[in-house]
Amino acid sequence: MRQLTTLLEEYPDANLLAGGTDLVLQVKQNHHINTVIYIASIKVLQFIKIHGNVLSIGATVTYHECSHILSKQYPELAKLLDRFGSQQIRHQGTVVGNIANASPVGDMLPVLMVLNAQLTLRQACGSRQISVADFFLDYKVSDLQQGEFIQSVEIPMAESGYQLKVYKVSKRIEDDISAVLAAFYLKVENKYVKDVYIAFGGMAAKPMRAIRCEEALRNQPWSKETVAVAAEQLVYDYSPLSDVRATACYRMKVAKNLLWKCFIETNDPALLTRVTDYA
Length: 279
Ligand SMILES: Cc1cc2nc3c(=O)[nH]c(=O)nc-3n(C[C@H](O)[C@H](O)[C@H](O)COP(=O)(O)OP(=O)(O)OC[C@H]3O[C@@H](n4cnc5c(N)ncnc54)[C@H](O)[C@@H]3O)c2cc1C
Fold this sequence. Notes:
The protein is an alpha+beta fold. The protein is built from 11 helices and 13 strands.
């Protein structure tokens, strides 16, 4: 790792190459890539550790390598991870690469935001921690400084009483980019919302928490009336764009409907809400 920090001091603009499933696409799109530092073979970055109630995933761990432990902690994630790219992509692409890429449609980013995951960023002069929620600044712009890299992501283990719901909306089940991805992490007690975290991908230039919507739900009855009010707050949380995947109008409608789906599935788990296990 010291070699990496030294190299980054010498080449602060270098592109790190982990799985290459994002970076190499830039070559295809004729972006000029200057210096590349290959990190996938750095052994000290290849770890999955549990410290107390935190799961720590090193920078070179692929989706294939950590999907079992992630799905064990959060069974809801199994379906999402099954749909992440394809088998080839899951064997090659890393969780940290997904974060570093800072795409508005990176599938794990809203999930990591609602779980309050933290990143450990390192450079020659030391390390610092930042929450995933604060890491994204704008479209494909993150808080990563020159000469700095992501060493690991720290994900809190599931808390008792909290439920995670994750919905990916895309045109194909597998190997497709999300039009919208919704993540909900909530604690409902005696039909009241005790705590709630909501984040969406595909609704803004970066993955973002739905703060207004959360406020409308927190400490309120988990009821149709509350959900109807909270869904309308999404209009103030996001101004989605239209692109080849979906129109702004469709995205907003889907986002509201996914809140309803979360309500229905947590309120009455026996109700059938999915056409397949994955949708
Ligand atoms: C066919 C295909 C399907 C895909 N499907 C999905 C999908 O369903 N969902 C989804 O979210 N994504 C998808 N992707 C995108 C991609 O696979 C993921 O974002 C993946 O997790 C990227 O990881 P990587 O290791 O390949 O990153 P790389 O391509 O190696 O790196 C990505 C970016 O992060 C930087 N970087 C990498 N590691 C670090 C580090 N430790 N510190 C700082 N910067 C770093 C690189 O310099 C680069 O800018 C798909 C891509 C392809 C080609």
